[in-house]
Specification:
2 domains, Arc Repressor Mutant, subunit A, 253 residues, 7-stranded parallel beta sheet, alpha/beta
Length: 253
């Protein structure tokens, strides 16, 4: 989904907090007329991002993500296996970005035996796991930390990550869909992720099989921007075909 102007972006951000909103409330929040909001909503609906209802609008496929602590314990065995496989693909002394996902938190733990890494992250959990371990250098994005996952986002974090050149970027996904590709629930997270992708030589998505065939409203990037998917089970045929067409290598844990 490409947002044509700042107002569409603001609408999607507002909807991302609660999933839905009334047209009059959006108009007041953005200091424009209700008719202006309706025009933007029509454009977003045509793009498949939202669904208009009487007097309001809601994000398509919206479901609020569980808190990080809840996600961390879901499918823990699969996530640990994926993390070990990812760690095996990263050389000693490499430069690597790890995002705020629960699976990447396990990757951070699996990397604790590596030496002399240059780790870039916007995750407090990752920073805590790897700072000061085995000669690692850790660079933490600035800005306000989100309460539910300890992640830093916004303009400061974007400017920070654009200073680096990375050997690897390890990303998470809320959903992997044959049509939409790699999807997230959160627009700031997707925008930050795209900035990271532009700085990395290899982009890996670490995601367990529960993410296959479900959906989320925000596209991380075109599938061609991802080099490797590390997962715990073979993807269903339609997703496997999408990955093959995009040139994404599937690595099983």
């Amino acid at each position: 989904m490409m947002l044509q102007n700042h107002r569409e972006r603001a609408i999607v951000e507002a909807l991302g907090k609660t999933g839905s909103a009334r047209i009059p409330d959006l108009a007041r929040a953005l200091s424009v007329t209700e008719e202006t909001i309706r025009r933007n909503v029509r454009r977003l609906e045509e793009a498949g991002a939202v669904v208009k209802v009487h007097g309001g609008v809601h994000l398509r496929d919206w479901a609020q993500e569980p808190a990080f602590a809840q996600r961390y314990v879901q499918n823990a065995g699969a996530k640990q296996a994926i993390a070990r496989r990812v760690a095996g693909l990263i050389a000693q002394g490499a430069s690597v970005f790890l995002d705020v996902g629960s699976t990447t938190a396990y990757v951070a733990q699996a990397l604790r035996r590596h030496r002399d890494l240059q780790v870039v992250t916007n995750s407090l959990t990752v920073a805590t796991a790897l700072a000061g371990v085995n000669g690692n250098r850790l660079f933490m994005a600035g800005g306000e930390l989100r309460r539910h996952d300890g992640g830093a986002f916004g303009a400061e974090a974007l400017a920070f990550v654009r200073q680096f050149r990375l050997s690897h970027a390890v990303m998470s996904a809320a959903a992997i869909d044959a049509t939409g590709g790699f999807l997230l629930q959160d627009l700031p997270e997707a925008e930050f992720g795209r900035a990271v992708l532009a700085q990395a030589d290899e982009v890996m998505v670490a995601a367990d099989a529960s993410k296959f065939g479900v959906s989320a409203p925000i596209r991380l990037a075109p599938p061609q921007a991802i080099h490797r998917l590390v997962t715990d089970a073979a993807p269903p045929a339609p997703i496997a075909a999408m990955l093959a067409q995009a040139g994404v290598t599937v690595t099983l844990a």
